[in-house]
Amino acid sequence: MPAPDRCLLIVEDDPHLAETLASAFTRRGYAVHTALREDSAIALAARIRPTHALVDLKLAEGSGLGVVKALATLDAPPAIVVLTGFAAVATAVEAIKLGATQYLAKPATAREIEAAFSHRAGMAMPEIEAPQVGVKAQEWELIQRTLAETGFNVSETARRLGMHRRTLARKLAARKAAGEDIGSIVDFED
Asked: What positions are modified (4-aspartylphosphate) (predicted)?
């Protein structure tokens, strides 16, 4: 059950990545809500009052910086981490000025993001604690993240992970058989 002080808003326009992040943070005890666009993120934030927010800088509809600015004006602003594949000093500075706690370049692990939530201006980045999840859970998180990055291309995912395609297919089949949602993979068997 999620802790009441851990309500996370994920603003990410890639639905597969948003789903992967939501799954990772749900396992870490967060109540997770997702939005794909700036306007829906701002409306959702006003309703749920998140304690934490993970915001993609480049959104297909709207701007991550607009979301950061709106979140920072809430009565109790959340800890905001901006996540982007287009890291640049100017946008990092702008995000921090608008109220972001930290700015991370993609790809970032759930542990790195969680550590960034507790960062405060003028402080060194906190040490990333030893994982509180098992090796299998870490492996599954890495597989999910890599699948999302490759657009759920199993062959490319296996190549990036240094794994044989059939090994990855077996792992995915086992997860599917266990009833886990593995995204939009329809046919991953040989």
From this structure: 56
